[in-house]
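Could you join me in thinking about how sequence relates to backbone shape in a protein? Label the sequence line and the structure token line clearly, so we can match residues to local backbone shapes. Once you have written the record down, we can walk along the chain together.
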Amino acid sequence: MRLLYIFATLIFWLLVAAFWAGSLWLPPAEKSAAIAVGKSISPTELAKHSTPENCWVAIRGNVYDLSAYLPKHPSQPDILPSWCGKEATEAYNTKTKGRPHSIYADELLIKYQIGILASGKS
């Protein structure tokens, strides 16, 4: 029984050490997100991404790549593509029907942020 205890303890600490060592080789997730969030995207660049397959949308000064999300969006299929490549804050805030999006939608949107909308055309 004592041998089993020693063996299990040894395996436990080896696994702890392996997870710790593995975390040293992986870049922190916050760093890559911070780089994307700080990227400045001009209105001209935003307008180039106006198809459902390549859909960028500006909301509240941030730019989001919603290409992968479009098929998952719960509304009618033609609602979101009409906003691709455009500033869509008012549409997002009102769902174009006078109702705000949920807190869950706001949290989900953060996952798709790729930068901030620059002022002026460049």
In short: The chain is about 45% helix and 15% strand. Strands lie at 40-41, 50-51, 54-59, 62-65, 86-87, 113-117. The first helix runs from residue 2 to 25.
